[in-house]
Amino acid sequence: MVRSTATLLSLYSLWLWMLFFSTSVASAQDLPERFEPSPLNPVFEASDGKWDSRIRERGWILRENGLWKLWYTGYQADASPMVMKLGYATSKDGVHWDRVNTEPLIGDFWVEDMMIVRKDDLYYMFAEGAQDQAQLLKSSNGISWERIGTLDVRLKNGQPIPPGPFGTPVGYFEGSTWYLFYERRDLGVWLATSTDMKVWTNVSDDPVITRDEHGVDSVMMAMNQILKDGDDYVAVLHGTVDPIKPRRWCTYLARSKDLIHWKKEAPLRPVDENKSSGQLVHDGNRWLLYTMHDRVDLHLPASVPADSSK
């Protein structure tokens, strides 16, 4: 049967509309409100008797050219002196991981609670150093790292922030500006900006995200990640309601339109599971949630809402 040119054009237009509609719907899908643990957990854990016989706090996962890359903090609790070191593993599917080296990538200075921003041809690592001092490192390949030094963070008036811990740094780049989120003694999240990564100046000398007296972060809190979801900025945070150790930490999200004013959302997993140091990673089809302390667990999008207060 021979179709007219008009009919073929109409069918082609309909196909284009359907393609655009389906793509728009998929790209506009919100992040899942809840996740369920994978039955394969843990997908990565400490190595008994090795330099990384314990895993601590936040690690970082990137997907590049079909390869999953994991940087993590390992240490030996009985070592003297005890030093947090940087480890590295890779995976083909985000589930089965292999350590690339038997030794740490960095073992001669303290690297803890780290995250990575890939910009142009460089990897920038934001990490805690000794005594919870936020550090910056860079690398051209993600393997060999150069320590740039402790971040120079200033008050709004240009004076250095008061001495003391400032850690769990989260870097984010947009436009021509670098954004740095950091916590002080886990009592809130501050925001500073920079155009040269040399001097960071507070947007406000008060935290932009504070603890909630009746929330899952009533005692302590920190940010682990920031990403863009449509017009929203999304922060992955964790908090605790426990004043003394051992503490239960809970992972949750917050949203913002301007990086300054934030609205918190419900926990992604129940408090009693003690899942912290979270990172959202997109596998090309869906969002996955990884929690890192003190092992790496994978969580898949939940299809049925559950009571997060349990």
Molecular structure report:
This protein has one helix and 23 strands. It has one helix spanning about 5-25, and strands at about 35, 55, 60-65, 65-75, 85-90, 95-100, 110-120, 120-130, 135-140, 145-150, 150-155, 165-175, 175-185, 190-195, 200, 210, 220-230, 230-240, 250-255, 260-265, 275-280, 285-295, 295-300. It has one domain: Glycosyl hydrolase domain, family 43 (Tachylectin-2, Chain A), CATH 2.115.10.20. The strands form five sheets. Strands 11, 12, 13, 14, 15 and 16 form a six-stranded mixed sheet that branches. By secondary structure, it is mainly β.
Task: Give a brief description.
This protein has one helix spanning 5-27; strands at residues 35-37, 54-55, 60-64, 67-75, 85-91, 97-99, 112-119, 122-128, 134-139, 146-150, 152-154, 167-174, 177-183, 188-194, 199-202, 209-210, 220-229, 232-240, 249-256, 262-267, 276-282, 287-293, 297-301.
In the CATH scheme, what's the topology name? Tachylectin-2, Chain A
Mean pLDDT: 91
Largest sheet: 6 strands, mixed
Q: What is the CATH C-level name?
A: Mainly Beta
Unreliably modeled segments? 5-28, 306-310
Query: Using DSSP, what is the number of strands?
Result: 23
Distance between the termini: 63 Å
CATH architecture: 5 Propeller
Q: What structural class is derived from the secondary structure elements?
A: mainly beta
